[in-house]
Amino acid sequence: MAGIYIHIPFCKKACNYCNFHFSVNQQRMPQMTEAIVSEALLRQGYLNEPVETIYFGGGTPSLLSGEQLNRILRGIRDFFTVSGNAEITLEANPDDISTASLESWKAAGINRLSIGIQSFFEADLSWMGRAHNAEQALACIPLAQATGFSNLSIDLIYGGPTLSDEHWKQNLKTAIELKVPHLSCYALTVEPRTILAKKINNRQLEEVDPDKQAIHFDILMNHTAAAGYEHYEISNFALPGMRSRHNSSYWSGSHYLGLGPGAHSYNGISRQWNIANNSLYLSSLKQKNIPAEIELLTTQQRVNEYIMTSLRTSEGLDLSQLEKTGPAGIVPDVLKLAKKFIENETLIHSGNFLVIPPKGKFYADGIAAELFQL
Questions:
Q1: 307 exposure class (CB count in 10 Å sphere: 0-12, 13-18, 19+)
Q2: For the whole prediction, is pTM greater than 0.85?
């Protein structure tokens, strides 16, 4: 299974915590649309298998018109073999969602929405610098459902200074009562060179409390489990049959092509990433050049990536797959490193798999890093 990711590098405003590549100058969206189609043409040989998922991320791809989305999807279908039942996701902000926009997205071929709710409370949205308000956050979900979007995901952020335990529980209760089939829930992270990092360093905003985040993560696991959601990846929860096919392909090591400035690609042998600069991206594509860097992956890198991604999933790390990926003797080496986590029950060795149980999930990335091959 192969996927295509399209990075739309435009936003209405900068959120305090965001470190993704974007511009608030939206004037060049038409040129960017055509450049992305041009890149698809130039890279049509990158994937040698049918495309099962297409994902519009950003940035804020819901700023594109239905015709612009349709233009990109037509280009992709011209240059790649796209499965008839492909999952086609659009990341959307609540303030961009209306009956008209929803209908235009459906007409363009979008069949799944990932909505950046983040919180249903005004204080949290204001602290994060979001463009939408609590009323829009609450109203957009039933509106999308009424327009025929049953395959929905929402993003929620926990562990911020303005979010109490009770309000976090209420955020989850609201999402569950609205019958949202997929939740992506992230601990608030202070990334370098963001507005949030600058304000915390200047003591304009309160620091993030990791102990509070751990409590919120426990609340998250308990509430979603009680409501019948599968905790299939550290940050992702789905009702049966509603997992994100696109994101699941990343975690399983499937190949994907990234289009647009800042987008990454992976073909099992190398990684490739486009320049994160709108002007240089546009000027390069005008000259029919792809402004990208390529890194050939070493065996060690492939092993460590497999360890990291597999341990984040509910299925866990398959030792037989690790043996195929790595050098001779890798399984005994990893099991030796894993011993202390197995003994303190933050890692379970079951048959041919290493799986992180609920007790260890908040520390999954740290556990994986301890198993890395240096």
A1: buried
A2: yes
